[in-house]
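input
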Amino acid sequence: MDRRRLSRQELIRARSGDGFVGREGELAAFRANLARDPADPDFRFLHHLHGQGGVGKTSLVQRFEQLAHERGALTVYVDESAHSVPDAMAAISARLGRQGSPLKAFDKLLATYRERRHEAEAALAGPDEPGGEPPPSPGSMIVARAGVAGLGLIPGVGPFAGALDTTYVARGAERLRGRLGARLRSHDDVQLVLSPVEVLTPAFVRELGDAADAVPLLVLFFDTYEATGPLLDTWLRDVLFSDRYGLLAQNVVVVLAGRDALDRTCWADHLEHVTDVPLDAFTEAEARQFLSAKDITDPGTVDAILRLSGGLPVLVSTLAGSRPGAADAVDDPSDTAVERFLKWETDPVRREAALAAALPCHLDEDVYREAVDAQAADQFGWLCGLPFVTGRSGRWQYHEVVRTAMLRLQRRRSPRAWAERHGRLAEAARRWGQECAGDRGAGGCRRDERWRELRLGEIYHGLCADPRGFLPEALSEVTATAEHEPSAVRLVAETVRKAGEDADAPEVRDWGTRLTAALDGADGLVAVLTALLARPGLDLPEQVRIHRLRGREHRKAEAWQQALADFDRCLELAPDDVRGLVGRGLTYRYQRDFLSAAMDFLRARTREPGSVSAAFQFAEVMRLMGWHGGALAAFDRTLELDPRHAPAHGSRAVCLRRLGRCEEALAGLARAIELRPGYAWAMAERGMAYWAMGRYAEAFAEFDRALARNPEYGWAYGARGSLHLVTGRLDAALADLDTAVGHGAATEWTFARRAAAHLLRGAEAAALADCDRALAADRDGPPAFLLAMKAGCLRRAHRPDAAREAVEAAAGLAPDRPVVRYETAMLASADAGVQGAASAWETLRTATEESRPPGSSDPAGGARAAVVSRCALGDWDGARASAAGLLGDGTAWEHVADVEFGIRDLTAAWPERDATTSGELEAVRQLLLDRMDAAAAAGR
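output
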C-alpha cells in the first residue's frame, strides 16, 4: 500500500483547490483514516454522514472523494438513481469499468439477469402455457411480493416491485418457480430471476475484491441515502458484516450520506463499527470563514447573508456565488430568498434561465433548451456551474431546497408563465416519447426505461401546467402501466404526488398520496384499481379496462368469485371485449370449469379471428377436457396464426401422444424446443412420449434433461418418480415424488402415485395418508379408483365400516370399474369368508373377461381383478392363463407387481384356506415374482 506523505503543495490543493471551506474536523478525521493501514484496528471502514437537506452532505462527500483520489484510491459514487440492489451493483461496476477496473464476470451475469428478467416478465404477462398431466395450477401465475417490495427486492430486487398483493406469497410461491422453470433455460436462470441479489452479489463481491487488491483503497460513496437506504440497508449490511456473499476485501471503505440516522432495526448489532458524522448548519465562524474565502468581507454583506441563509451551507454558497460587494446588494426588498439569490446575476437572460431550468425534476441539455427562452439556449454550461446544481452521468438537478423555493416563486409570480413553460416541457416530452416508441406497442414502450422516463416527464409537466385538465390522462396512465408493466405503477403514482406538491394542486397531490398508500397496503394493485374505478366521470372504455385488470389481479390471487365478478362487469359493459373474454375464460379454466372456459374462448375467437391468445386458449381447454382430436385441429389453427408459437407446438404434441401418434408427438416437441431452447416443459413432455412408447431409458433421459434445466420443476419430478414406480425402483420413486410435492406439484396425481408406491412397499399407513391427501387435492370430486384404494387401506387396517363407506362412495361413481368390484368382493370376503363371497368373486370374474392391462392412472385395474378373482374361485388354470395373457412380455413392472400385491391381499383375507389352496396361491405368486424380475431388468 502507498504510505507516502503528502507534499505541502498537495496539502494546499486538498484544502483549497476546489474552494471547499469548512468542515475541517470532518475532513481531518477522514484524511487521517485514509492514511491508516486497513489492517489497523483503528481503521474505520464505514462512515455515515447525516443532516438536513442543504447542510452540505453532497459537497462533503465530493470532498471526501477527492481526498480518496489523492491517496490513489478507486472511488465510486452512487446516488438515488439506483432504484434497487442490482441497480446499485450495476452503477458501481460501470464506474469502476470507466476507471479501468471492470467487473467482467459480474457484468456478464448482470446482462444475463436483465435478459432473463425480460423473458420472465413477458411469460408472466402473457397467456398461460400448458402444463403436463394434471393441468398446471393457477397459482403458478403468481408473482409474490415480500413486504412492500417486489419479487427480488430488499434483498433480491427485481422488476415486479410494489405491484401485487402480499397474500400471493402463501398461495403460489413454489408454483411460480415451476412456471418460470418451464420457461427459462435453466435452474440458474430461475434463481437469477427470483433471487437476483442472491446470485449476483457473490460475483460482485469477488470481483470488487479483485479490483481492491490492485489499489491502496476502494471507496464506495452512497449519497442521498435517505432515498436508497430502505432498498440497500440489508444487502449492504450483509456484504460488510457477514460472509453470506463471500468475504469483502479489507481495504474497501463505505461512506453513506443521507438525511436520516441509520435504521436501528437493521444496523443495531454493528453500530460500534460506524463512524457517525452528524452535520448541521455552519456555525457563524464557519460561515464567515467560507465567505472570507469567497472574498466577501464587507461586514454588512456578511451579516445579511448570515441572516438570510440561517447558516445552511447550500444557501450560504448560493448567496455568495455572485460575490455581492455591499450590504444593499443583499438587503433587497424582494419577498423571497430566491429573488435575492438571482438578483446578483446581473444578466436578466441568465436570471430567467436559472428560474426556468428549475422546472424539470432532472436536466440534460435537450431538456434545458426546451425549458429556457431562446436567448439563453447556449447557457447550459454556465447553469451547470451554479453551486446548487449537481450532475452525474449526464443528468443534472437542482438542490431540493433551492428548487422548491424557485418553483414556489414562479408559480406565485406568474401562473400563466408557469403553465406555459410546463406545457412546453410536457409537449417536448410527448414528442420525444413518440420518437422513442417507434413502431412498438403499448406494452413494449412501457417496458423501456427511456420511454418510461419521458412519459413520466410528460405527466409531471402536464399536471403542473393544467392540474385539473391533465389529471384524467395521468390516471389513465396509471391504468395503462398496471396493464403492461405493473412494477412501474409506483413510479407513476409518485410522479402524480410530486406534481401535486410542486404545483400546489390538492386534488392531484391527494390522488398521488392515495395511490402510493394503496400500493403499500394489503391489497396492492387491486386497491389502486378500485380507487381508479371509483372516480366520477370515468368513460366506458376505461371502466372496461379497469374491471378487466382487476379481474386479472383477483385471478392471480385465486380470488375466483371476485375475478369472475369483475370480468362479468367488463363484458356487461363491452360484450365484445376479447381480452375480457380471454381473461374470464382463464378464470374458468383454473377453476376447472372447462366448458365455460371453452365457450368464452370460442366467443373471443369468433369476435377476433386473428387473436392468437384466444385460439391457443380454446385449443388448450379442449385438450384439458380430453377432446384430443378437436384440440389437434384447434392447435393447427393457432399455428396458422403464429407458426412460431412454442406452447402450441408442445400442446399439440401432447394431443398426438394421447391419440397414439407418438412419433409425430416427438417431432412436435422437438419443434417447440427448437423455438424455445431450454423449454423444460417440452422436455418433460418428450419424456412422457418416450414412456408411452415403452422407451424408458430415453424417457428417463428427457426427465433428467428437464430437471437439469430447472431442478425445481415439481411436475417433472413427479413424472420421473412415476416412471421409477412403473419400472420397479420404489426408493427412487418415493424420493422423486416427495421432491415433487415439495416443489409445487402437490396434486391429486402426485399423491395417488406416491400412495401406490407406499402400498407396494407395504407402508399401509403412509398409503392411506396419501389417499386422503389426493382426495383433498382433487378439485373435480373424488375419483372412484382413489376411493377404492382408500377402502383397501382401511380394510387392511381393520376398519371395515370406514372401508365400506369408501367402497359405497366409489360404487356410486363407477360401479363397473374393476377396482371397485375388487374391493366389494374383498369386503364381502372379510364378512363371510372367501368361499362365502363366491357370488361377488364370480361377478368380478365375469366383468373382467375382456380386461386389458390397466393404464398407470388405474393401478388396481383389470389385471389384478382378473387373476385374483379366478384364484378366489379356485380356477387356478384360469388364473395362470389370465396372468400369461394380461401380463406378457413388455408389461411394466408396476402392473405385474400390482397383481402380485392382489395375491398377497387375497392370501391375508383367506385364513381358512387349505394346504392345496396355499400351494396354488404361492405358485401363482411365484410366477408373478419371476415376471416382476424380468420386467425390472427390461425397465433398466
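quick obs: The CA atoms of residues 601 and 617 lie 6 Å apart.
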